[in-house]
Amino acid sequence: MSDASIVYYCAPGTRSHNNTRLAKIARLCDALDLKEVVKEGELTAVKLHFGEDGNDTHLRPSWVRVVVEKVLAAGGKPFLTDTTTLYSGSRHNAYDHIQTAYRHGFAPSVVGAPVILADGLYGENDVPVAIQGKHFKEVHIATEIVRAPALVVLSHFKGHEMGGFGGAIKNMAMGGAAVRGKRDQHDTHVQINHETCVGCGECVKICPQKALSLQDKKSCVDITKCIGCFECITVCPIKAIDIDWATQIEPFVERMTEYAWGVVKSHPKRICFINFVMNVTPDCDCAGWSDLPMVPDLGILASYDPVALDQACFDLVNQAPWINDADKRIDKSKADKFTARWPHTRGEIQLSHGEWLGMGSRQYELKKI
Known about the structure:
Elements: E1 5-10, H1 21-32, E2 43-47, H2 61-73, E3 77-81, H3 94-103, H4 108-111, E4 126-130, E5 138-142, H5 143-147, E6 150-156, E7 158-160, E8 164-166, H6 168-176, H7 179-186, E9 191-192, H8 202-206, E10 212-215, E11 218-221, H9 231-235, E12 241-242, H10 245-265, E13 271-277, E14 299-303, H11 306-319, H12 337-341, H13 349-357, E15 364-368
Parallel strand pairs: 1-15, 2-3, 2-6, 6-13
Antiparallel strand pairs: 1-14, 4-5, 7-8, 9-12, 10-11, 13-14
Helix pairs in contact: 1-2, 6-10, 7-10, 10-13, 11-13
């Protein structure tokens, strides 16, 4: 796709009651004309990330409620959805995941819609979707995401230690896949630097597959059990656990993007996207904490094209000033703020590979509303 796609944009600031963030979200929904996506009486999946327990920069329930109300006004029957995680934590099965969603404010009494996990109790329910990708000809997408006639994707745009950044593409890819689809995307195993490992055991405690153990006061990995969920990389206090980024990061991001394409292909002309470029933290909301934002709040954007939308958000972040420049890990000479924070990542591949697949265009026209 070479033609520029329309991306609607609302700046974050306000000085009046009729221009609040809630009002801006409503205007973005109107600009998208949800009646083009939502049909009378049909179920509509609202895909979002409820945040890991301990995270507090996930989307606000009050923001999500506005979208739910707009779906209801268009005649749809909305439900909030996500999928279970590969790693152990507060969202590893449907019961714990829903309880986490409720604790974070996503209860039906607050948002006006029920929470229905899309891949079953243990993440085993999926539907094959045919694609023509570089790595996959078929992807395994969570059953209820595919079966829902309409899909509205709400994404918190932020950094990610493996993907570079997370927006609409990553939200659909990892968040739209059942467990075996997540394994398809990771398809690697970690390696441990025994010279730096201090044997603290944090990785052993967190591993959902029991693939890690302490031997002679050093962490060791059983590669036959490792599923590449990367949770050990996240919790290692001295970063002694890693993967071979030089050879594995590009295919990882490509595989992830192809899974997002599977979600888009399962909803021809019945899918739209809203990205919140607020609280742009270095980490995904899968982390059980929330670091300081990298840049100021930059606004809320919406589109029918996920590639154009993520590109526009990516550009806004890279054009913005740093606000946590005391972080010694940041190389501020880099134009890409996400690789400045996570030097091994290549998040821009999400955009280039997404365009190559035909998922959207990197060319966009930003319309302020």
